[in-house]
Design brief:
The structure is a single chain. This protein is 0% helix and 50% strand. It is built from no helices and eleven strands. By secondary structure, it is mainly β. Strands 2, 4, 5, 6, 9, 10 and 11 form a seven-stranded mixed sheet that branches.
Length: 121
């Protein structure tokens, strides 16, 4: 059974940092593109950052460039989102999304349950 489990969400003051984790079971994240999305109350879900499969490059939404970093630990089968210089507008539920990019998994698309990030003084 495939599972993506996010963790690391918390309450943090503006200017603070958090590292979110997305740990996978039942699939090898190396073979998937991974995206982090977020959704704030009353707003649509939006793409925050993504990293390609098999060593592919990372891309970021303009509103997090220079502050957030997406990375992989292939041994731990985990993808991270390091978030620095957090702003109140970064508060949201953050979701991990694994997208199959190979011929063997191109129909696969998995989501985690989300982790809450709150930015407030």
């Amino acid at each position: 059974q495939v599972q993506l489990v996010e963790s690391g969400g918390n309450l943090v003051q503006p200017g603070g940092s958090l590292r979110l984790s997305c740990e996978a079971s039942g699939l090898t994240l190396w073979n998937y593109a991974i995206a982090w999305h977020r959704q704030a109350p009353g707003k649509e879900r939006e793409l925050v950052a993504a990293i390609g499969s098999r060593g592919g490059s990372a891309n970021y939404a303009n509103f997090v460039k220079g502050r957030f970093t997406i990375s992989r630990d292939n041994v731990k089968n985990t993808v991270y989102l390091q978030m620095n210089s957090l702003k109140p507008e970064d508060a949201a539920v953050y979701y991990c999304n694994a997208i199959g990019t190979q011929s063997s998994n191109s129909r696969e698309n998995y989501w985690g349950q989300g982790t809450q990030v709150t930015v407030s003084s």
